[in-house]
Amino acid sequence: MAKKLTKSPKNVRVGVLGSGSFATAIVKMLLENCKTVNWCVRNEFVKGAIEQRGHNPTYLTTVNFNLKKLQITTDINELVSNCDVIILAVPSIYLAESMEKLTCDYQDKLFCSAIKGIVPKHNDIVAHYLRDEFKIGFKNQAVIAGPCHAEEVAMERLSYLTVAVAEQDDADILREVLSSFYIKVNTSCDILGNEYSAILKNIYAIGAGIASGLGYGDNFIAVYVSNAIREMETFLEAIYPEKRDVNDSAYLGDLIVTAYSLFSRNRNLGNLIGKGYTVKSAIQSMSMVAEGYYATNGIYAICKEKKLKLPIINAVYDILYEGKSAEKQFAKLTDKLT
Amino acid sequence: MAKKLTKSPKNVRVGVLGSGSFATAIVKMLLENCKTVNWCVRNEFVKGAIEQRGHNPTYLTTVNFNLKKLQITTDINELVSNCDVIILAVPSIYLAESMEKLTCDYQDKLFCSAIKGIVPKHNDIVAHYLRDEFKIGFKNQAVIAGPCHAEEVAMERLSYLTVAVAEQDDADILREVLSSFYIKVNTSCDILGNEYSAILKNIYAIGAGIASGLGYGDNFIAVYVSNAIREMETFLEAIYPEKRDVNDSAYLGDLIVTAYSLFSRNRNLGNLIGKGYTVKSAIQSMSMVAEGYYATNGIYAICKEKKLKLPIINAVYDILYEGKSAEKQFAKLTDKLT
Question: Quick one: which residues bind NAD(+) (chains A, B) (predicted)?
Fold first, then answer.
């Protein structure tokens, strides 16, 4: 078991792994409270660009950083050694590549995942990956859930995060380092439920985008989302029963924002497919990773194993991985929704 | 107790009271199945215009009717006498004016409310108004709930209705007369719950519009909606406990479509207020009745009586009826949401 984070929030050393839009948004949040933020970015180019320009060269370019407060590296061992809390915010497909380089001591650190996807090589969620491959127990893990599109953080528009973590002291510290006039933080004990729901909502957002691309209207999408949250509840109850209200912001709120917002890349991927793009060309046309694509494969496998029949997940899987017609699959799906 | 509707759906005589957009949409739905639809419109001008042009002169003007199948009147007694099922689809503020003219025998009829508002003179919901003023018991009542914006029905975009009614036979008949290739019908026994939730969602939609008008973004609105459905559940449990899942389409779906759709007049009213219009000028600028305005007063009174503290309802009430600043009320509200 890990050393407790006995430091005060002012002194706790926090770092972020990743240089995409959500990682950049988290660095911005942390800088509101922390004297220094450690930031491990993808490569020397990104590091140099941030140090020269004061902003991420590719994502949230309007967010300017006080460079004196940033400690930028490309070395995950430097990041982890220098920090008590490490916020993981790389796309799930790149997580293993980074983590496999980890050689320093990390057993007393808190790993906090802001990743909403499946680790493809292991076809499993991040919490399990960290536990199984790195012996990081759930007491040393936390999950950061939304609804929180990074683009709105950049604009300092009020957003709510939910931090799921086992120990109340850790929850307090995470709340304090992340809170600001535009970020409010809820806390929760449902680490795995929050992680699974964050993954599922990306699949549902792809489906919402497909429906929209196919020409279904607002009335239908509302019915679709109300079915999606019920499906999500069925999944969570089957996989990880826990006293939870799926209508809390981290579950329903995150589902809604991802299914409706034009900032949602998963919704946009679905929309292209609904409009007739092939899955391959839709993915290629996007500059950012749509986590839901990989998640669909992993979650579908779990459903199959657990004999869960979830009509929306099935329809999205058949469209993305079985080459089935979006139009036909959704026509069938409409009969299964209520 | 009423005579049962023993007729087959093909022969059941159905009528609609009202000539607004939702009434017009319902007439369109019924014409897919019924040989004749009885339609009681507001006045002779509307009657003449429909008979001459084949469409409603003001609402859903693109919907053309087969006039041979329409029996149009301005006399509620003619409507009720000629029908087994009467669908009430006038704005709630005009319902009493119509119903007070009722002199014919109506005790064996099924009154089906598609109204989502409070009857202002009685400050009560339609189901209670019909029961208390006309001795129409709940066994002779039904409620039609959405999510179903009339504008999308006009476009024949797939929509789902929920019909809440006590008797299964009546549910079957209503399902059959309303279903078509663009309308799917769920059934429910929760008559009062469906009516209350349809009223509440209009208040929440005004609040969503206010937030949007004030500049709050997608992340916040998603948190707001997830709080709204929890508030709705608290209200329904307090007023009318019943085994229900508020994530069913008629509750959550209807809330989402009303809070998000640009077709939502309640959302639009809120949006104008959020942008700085006075409540009075915002109402005056709209050509259609925003039910949520009147509903806020009625629901707030119920909350006060039942000592229910519902932060969103309170904030919307204070803005609409107490002249308080939308900006300040929402700033306070953000601390109460989770």
Answer: 150, 265
